[in-house]
Design brief:
Number of domains of chain A: 2
Strand content of chain A: under 5%
Number of strands of chain A: 0
Distance between the termini of chain A: 74 Å
Helix content of chain A: 55-70%
Oligomer: homodimer
Largest interface: A-B, 53 and 53 residues
Radius of gyration of chain A: 21 Å
Largest sheet of chain A: none
C-alpha cells in the first residue's frame, strides 16, 4: 500500500527516512487520539477519529489496520506513559490499585477506552485482537498483584490463608468496577474509601493485621 | 407511524386489539432478542438484530425507537425474569452477589449485554437513555446492598465500623469485574472463591466474625 500522505511507507522503496517518518506520524496520531479519547470518549468510528484529528480515513487506515488496532495501541501507549517508576515491587496490591485509580480520575476518557476494550473483548468473534490483548493484560495485572500479595504474606502483612490468585482477581475486579461506578455517579461512589476496605483483607504498610494489644511496647 | 406489520399500532385507531397485539409482538421480539444475545452477544446493529430474529428493520424500529432502547428493554426483561423470590432481605450482601454471578454463568450473552450497556453509559452524549438506566440501576443495586449490610451490622455479623455505602459499591464492583475476568479467562478466575474473600469483611450466615473462644459453650 502506498503511503496516502505521500512518500514511501513502511513497505516503500526509501526505508531509511520513510520508516522514521512513518513511525513519527504514527506516534503523532496516537498522541492526538489519546487526547481525543480523553476529551470525547471512544464512541466513534475510525472515520470520525480521523476527521477529529485531521487525518484522512485512508491515512489512518495506512497506520492502523482497524479501529480495534488503533484503540489497542492508544491504550498500550497510555499504559507505557503512565508506568510509574514509583511503583516498586514492595508496594502492596491494594495500594497499587489505589494509586492507579487516583491517576485515572483526571483521564475519564481513558477509563472509557478501557471499558470499550474489555466489552469488545467479550465478543471474541468480532474482536479477536482485542480479546487477546485484554485477556493478556488481565493475566499480567493479576500476576503482578499475586507477587505483591505473596510478598505481603512473606512479610506477615497479609493473612497466610488468603489464596493469592483469588485475591489478585478480586483486587483487579474491585478497582475496575469502582472506577466505572465513580464515572457514572461521582457523588455517590468514593473509589479510594471502598478500596481501603480491601486493606482489611490485604493490608498495606501501616495497617498490619495484628491486633493492637499484641504489639511490642 | 403506521405499524409496518399491518394493523393499527399503539397510536392507531383500534386501540383494544392492536394495543394487545403490539404488546405481544414487542414481548416476542424481546424474548427472541434475549435468546440471540445469550448466543451471539450484542455486537450487532439494530438491522442485524432484526435480520437475526426475522423482523424487518422498519418493524423493529416501530417497536423500539433505537438500538439503545432495545438493549435496555432486553436487560430489564432479563432482570425481571431472573428476580428470585428466594432472595429475601436477610440474604447477606456477598451471598446475593454470589448467587447472581452463579446464575449468570449460564448466560454469558447477558453479561456481555450488561458490559455493553455500562460501556455505552460512559458516553453520556451518545447514549443518554442508557446512561440514565445504568446509573439508576447501580443506585438501586447499591441501595439494596446497603440495606443488607446494615441488617448484618444490626445482627452483629458485619463489623460496625464498615461504612455501608463504601462496602456496597465494593461488593457490586467486585462482582461485575470478576464476572468479566471469568468470561475472558474461565480457567484462571473463580468468581465464587474470589467473592468469598469479601465474606471476611462482610460475613454471611455461618461465618460470624466473633473469634471462636468467645462463643458460648
Amino acid at each position: 500500500m502506498v503511503n496516502p500522505e505521500g512518500g514511501a511507507g513502511p513497505v516503500g522503496r526509501t526505508p531509511g527516512r520513510s520508516y522514521r517518518q512513518a513511525a513519527e506520524r504514527r506516534a503523532e496520531i496516537l498522541a492526538r487520539a489519546i487526547e481525543l479519547f480523553a476529551e470525547h470518549g471512544t464512541d466513534t468510528s475510525l472515520r470520525a477519529i480521523g476527521e477529529s484529528i485531521g487525518v484522512s480515513h485512508a491515512a489512518l487506515r495506512y497506520y492502523f489496520a482497524s479501529r480495534d488496532e488503533l484503540l489497542i495501541e492508544v491504550y498500550r501507549q497510555h499504559e507505557q506513559q503512565e508506568k510509574e517508576p514509583s511503583d516498586p515491587e514492595d508496594v502492596p496490591a491494594v495500594t497499587l490499585m489505589e494509586r492507579s485509580a487516583e491517576r485515572n480520575r483526571s483521564i475519564p476518557g481513558i477509563v472509557g477506552l478501557y471499558a470499550t476494550l474489555t466489552t469488545d473483548a467479550l465478543q471474541a468473534d468480532a474482536h479477536p485482537q482485542t480479546r487477546e490483548f485484554v485477556t493478556e493484560r488481565f493475566r499480567r495485572v493479576r500476576a503482578d498483584l499475586v507477587e505483591r500479595i505473596e510478598a505481603g504474606q512473606r512479610a506477615g502483612t497479609v493473612a497466610a490463608d488468603v489464596d493469592p490468585s483469588d485475591a489478585a482477581a478480586l483486587v483487579a475486579a474491585a478497582s475496575d468496577g469502582l472506577q466505572l461506578q465513580w464515572l457514572l455517579d461521582p457523588e455517590a461512589v468514593d473509589v479510594r474509601r471502598s478500596l481501603e476496605l480491601l486493606e482489611r483483607l490485604l493490608p498495606g504498610n501501616g495497617s498490619r493485621p495484628e491486633p493492637r494489644d499484641s504489639r511490642p511496647g
